[in-house]
Write a structure and sequence with these properties.
heterodimer; A: mainly alpha; 12 helices; 2 strands; B: mainly alpha; Ferritin; 65% helix; 0% strand
Chain lengths: 329, 256
């Protein structure tokens, strides 16, 4: 589950292409215009490789960290049907991490390096997972609406230019669509259930609305840098575009269930066709992404625990002759 | 088939024992999701856990057809004293060596148990036993591969696996705690008994542990940990059950 990659707006557009062979660069861009996929051994600009590694790596981390808030509810899921479904769902998320780490490795960064950067706090993951899943209903809201947001992002990015990432995303999206059905079914049961269940799910929606609105990232600053990444089909849509698509598709469904969205301004402007809403607190977003959210420390601590406790197993698998080699391109 | 009261008690006791083991070990293995030493192992443990929990559900459904409560009520509302699981499955996941060795010892016992049950006179169970063979084959294959790899890889992993075997072995012998209804079950053609199962189990695990250069504790030191089958449990079971039923028990009549 993943919103949208952080793009470093301090990078200058010129530096993205600086030092690159103009003939190779022109051919590369022509291939992308023709709709061809770039494959691991093909020539690519260094900045393209760097941005993709950052993006796929953040996505992979989001999957594995995203397994934690829902994973803690596997042991408490009510009834066999929900327990088995949630286990399978969270297992899928870990499977997505595996696919994505492999996709990122084709660009030359090892899984070990990526995981080290995650637990050292150097690389990021989706901000929403720094919020706690307080009740069973939170897992329902996550499975429905966070996964819905992720599908919008991932379907968009699966039309991008890097072959291995696109192929991983296609597979991920088909699994996520089951998660969304599971989440929706879960929310339907709660919102049409007993008073206690209805209150649980409304409270969960209230808690998660801000993180949901944060999910696709702050409004993009229009910069030459973004333009280059869009031309290279690394970034496929603006954050606001994806947020609008999410609101368009899901707000009516939320209202249909008799739930209230905690934003009195939220409505579709019939004239412009655009959603009006209260901007979520972007200062909070920045604070959380920089480490000061309710669960940042806990999430990384758990991940660190897993890495440290599992180190002996990985050492026992190492063979001198199977040392990783970086692809040539 | 019509059973008299004693026969019915014997059958239910037997089914509870099998299903409770599977539910509890499945639940424990699911706790590895997100915490495994490799993402591949998170995924493997989760698959195995899903199979076990699904199997437990099916066996509880047989119990339901014999007059017990429905599967959800059985699993999510009983207290520890009503469970018949062995102590081996109740322990927290500990580290990967412990969980892996537990799976290895448990899965082999279960594989043989279901082989023995393939032609049981209790037809509903026989059908499931034949179906599960296909699933459990992969559970033992997973455990065998890892036990052999880690037993031989390096000094550290060898020492860890030998320690794990020493720690889990007497607990695993507790799987075979004989039921007071053993004679009844045998007479009805339902199950040949735990003594035969244990013998077959030792025969199955010995060559794999040898290949892993691991040593089964000396027979003179064996001290099977019994009690679970009679409702005496480790201190770990009750808190686990409280957690498992936390949401369900908020309102057992609600549809979740």
């Amino acid at each position: 589950m993943y919103g949208n990659a952080q793009i470093d707006s301090k990078d200058k557009a010129k530096s993205l292409t600086e030092g690159e062979d103009p003939i190779k660069l022109a051919e590369f861009e022509a291939r992308i215009i023709r709709g061809e996929k770039i494959e691991p051994k093909d020539w690519m600009p260094a900045a393209y490789r760097k941005q993709l590694i950052r993006m796929i790596e953040q996505h992979a981390h989001s999957e594995i960290i995203g397994a934690l808030p829902e994973g803690t509810w596997i042991t408490r899921a009510p009834g066999f049907r929900r327990k088995l479904a949630l286990m399978a769902k969270v297992q899928d998320e870990v499977g997505h991490a595996q696919l994505l780490y492999s996709a990122a490795e084709t660009l030359g960064k090892t899984r070990e390096d990526m995981i080290n950067d995650l637990i050292n706090g150097k690389s990021k993951y989706s901000n929403v997972f720094n919020y706690p899943a307080m009740t069973w209903a939170d897992t329902a809201i996550i499975a429905w609406l966070i996964d819905a947001g992720a599908i919008i992002n991932q379907v968009t990015n699966s039309k991008g230019s890097y072959g291995p990432y696109c192929r991983a995303l296609e597979r991920i999206c088909s699994e996520e669509s089951f998660h969304l059905k599971y989440g929706h079914d879960n929310v339907v049961f709660l919102s049409t259930g007993t008073q206690q269940q209805r209150e649980m799910v409304q409270d969960a929606l209230n808690r998660w609305w801000t993180p949901i609105m944060h999910f696709h990232g702050p409004p993009d600053k229009v910069s030459q840098h973004t333009e280059v990444l869009m031309r290279w089909k690394v970034k496929m849509a603006s954050n606001d575009d994806m947020r609008y698509r999410f609101l368009d598709e899901y707000v009516p469904k939320i209202w249909d269930l008799g739930l209230t969205i905690p934003d009195p301004k939220l409505r579709k402007n019939e004239e412009t066709g655009v959603w009006d809403y209260t901007e979520p607190d972007w200062e909070e977003f920045k604070r959380v992404i920089n480490g000061d959210g309710p669960c940042n420390k806990e999430r990384l601590q758990v991940r660190r625990w897993a890495e440290e406790k599992g180190a002996w197993v990985r050492r026992a698998l190492l063979k001198a002759e199977s040392k990783y080699t970086i692809p040539l391109a | 088939m019509n059973y008299n009261e004693t026969q019915l008690i014997a059958i239910k006791d037997f089914l509870y024992k099998i299903a409770d083991d599977q539910l509890i070990i499945g639940h424990r293995n699911s706790e590895w999701t997100g915490l495994g030493p490799l993402v591949e192992e998170d995924i493997a443990f989760s698959s195995i856990a899903q199979d076990k929990i699904g199997q437990a559900q099916h066996i509880y459904e047989i119990l339901h057809s014999l007059g017990e409560a429905d599967a959800d009520t059985i699993a999510f509302t009983r207290s520890a004293a009503d469970f018949k699981s062995c102590h081996l499955v109740e322990y927290p996941i500990g580290e990967y060596d412990f969980s892996l060795m537990r799976n290895f010892l448990f899965n082999h016992a279960e594989k043989i148990r279901f082989e023995m049950l393939a032609d049981t006179s209790l037809e509903q169970l026989g059908k499931l036993a034949r179906k599960y063979r296909g699933e459990i084959k992969y559970h033992t294959m997973h455990a065998d591969t890892w036990v052999k790899q880690l037993g031989r890889a390096n000094e550290e992993s060898h020492a860890r696996m030998q320690t794990a075997l020493n720690e889990t072995f007497n607990l695993a012998l507790g799987i075979f705690e004989e039921s007071e209804y053993a004679g009844e079950l045998k007479k009805m053609g339902i199950f040949e008994g735990e003594v035969i199962l244990q013998q077959k189990w030792i025969e199955a695990i010995t060559p794999i542990l040898e290949a892993a250069t691991l040593v089964i504790p000396d027979k003179n030191t064996w001290q099977p940990v019994y009690g679970g089958r009679k409702g005496y449990h480790t201190e770990y079971l009750e808190p686990m059950l409280v957690e498992m039923g936390e949401v369900f028990r908020l309102d057992p009549k609600a549809e979740w």
